[in-house]
């Protein structure tokens, strides 16, 4: 029995070492790497937003932002994404309480809200295309589709990560600290939301 | 058996510190719901500027509301307010560089446009 206890203690120590105790800084290396990644993502979206701001007036005599955007639809989808941040926080808190049932429930709700947002974006893109605004129509349309498309891809990746997490938790196959893994996905999800807060204001609400 | 119990206690103790040296104080769910309601209110106010014309006041008001929402999410939902300062540093360096790149790009193009 003592051997088993010692063995478990050693393996447990290794797991927690990966989550912070074994690192030089005393903080989780995984979490630090995630924040570093999010910092680099700021540069990516900063560049895309800058490009859109430069080209948003370059649509010639064609359809521009004022005629194209459906603000009520985008407002609803923004609200949906914002609320998904709340459900993600609930999932993280449930994971910290080691409540797997509620963690899975909130992760699933977050994934559904994210899917709803992506669906609204697909609808928006389709309606723009039917109005004659494609990717190569003008500099405005190219920069708009690139910026919002990149964001949409990030949301889609987030949805896949959330659903994968639900499956992994259901099978009880989480490697390392479960709460930390959920928290990392949460950080990515909140970042995607925070980028949309900026895009919604700068692209949709502030007139060109 | 006592070794197992002792190990379980140590494990529990270690779990509390798994997120980085010191376990951050994280508020209860009700606090996050209140924050989400404030964010929803701010979004409603932002959206209302589409129908209520504020003239020259609209853009600064929208930028201020956007900044408040941004930092509410980053500080509270992403736990930067409660977490280790090194995480804040990593994120704000990226954010600062992004804003710098944005300013340089816009001013450069403005310069060449003249």
From TrEMBL, chain A:
GO terms for biological process: aerobic electron transport chain. One of its GO terms (molecular function) is cytochrome-c oxidase activity. GO terms for cellular component: plasma membrane. Keywords: Cell membrane, Membrane, Transmembrane, Transmembrane helix. It is found in: Cell membrane. It is a multi-pass membrane protein. The keyword Nucleus does not apply. This is Unannotated protein. It comes from freshwater metagenome.
UniProtKB/TrEMBL annotation, chain B:
It is found in: Cell membrane. It is a multi-pass membrane protein. The keyword Transit peptide does not apply. Its main location: membrane. The keyword Transcription regulation does not apply. It holds the Pfam family COX4_pro. The chain crosses the membrane at residues 57-77, 89-113. GO terms for cellular component: plasma membrane. Residues 1-23 are annotated as: Disordered. Keywords: Cell membrane, Membrane, Transmembrane, Transmembrane helix. Coiled coil: none annotated. InterPro entries: Cyt_c_oxidase_su4_prok (IPR005171). This is Unannotated protein. It comes from freshwater metagenome.
